[in-house]
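Exercise 7.
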Amino acid sequence: MLALWTGILATKKSGGKLHALHTLRDTGKALIMASTRDIRRRIKSIKSTAQITKAMQMVAASKMRKAQQAALNARPFARMLYRFQRHATTQSVDFTHPLLEARPVNRRAVILIGGDKGLCGALNSNLFRLASRFDPASTVFITAGRRAAQFVARTRRQLVAEFAYGDTPRFSEAKAITTCAIDLFLKREVDEVQVVATRFVNTLTQVAVSMELLPVGEAKGLKLPEGLTEEELVAHEPEYLFEPSPEAFLSYLLSHYFNVFIYLILLNAKASEQSARMVAMKNATDNANTLIQDLTLEYNKLRQGKITTELLEIVGGQTD
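Solution. The predicted structure, written as tokens, is:
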């Protein structure tokens, strides 16, 4: 069964054809020699697997719609909060805060947000490939999701905290991750905090990104609306009057900004995971159906050939 799953889920980059199907065509002679019973058994096994992948596709599609809607609904508020943060930090010339302190980066923390399960295509692989670029000697990891923790353990990197989040991320889960990261930064155990996660674009596209969380400043990996640059975003916004002062507003804002920021990232990660899983299961189901059609055709050819051979033997016997 494991070999069958591997054959069905593995796809070519061009055309989406199965490696198993390619191998099957290359070994056509061996297939002809197989008995009809073997082919029937294989067709039955693949049909069972196709039913499983179809069910998983339907479940992922249901979860995907909810996750996508949650991620899209949170974006306007997160962008508005980011604008406030940028205006307050650029206008507060004399304001100082420990979270604004930029210092030489000798040690950094990476918040790695991955999926809880597999069977979602290359989503986790692309994410971990980006995370592997950080120097293991000077980087510690805070993970969210079982796959992220497994990657850190498998590559023998330093793990300081592991968190879990469900199919519907909660604000309290984001707050726990943020608290851990801020604590490391304020204790000067790390000089910088980066977030490596997946940004949801649409059902077919999910992009692994790396964003700077601490110290507070420009979120370089953030997708800005209408293709604006960081300078254009600040310049095109109207002037804000902060009461009682920009410093007081920023002190209050920083206590909530990071929680909302991480919560938005969790929503994007879950929407990306469910979308990638739905697409992967759909491709697996389509590939299984294609393989069933080819096996059925070979089965019919083999059966017809045996019938023809038997008829020829009968006719030849009567002639003799």
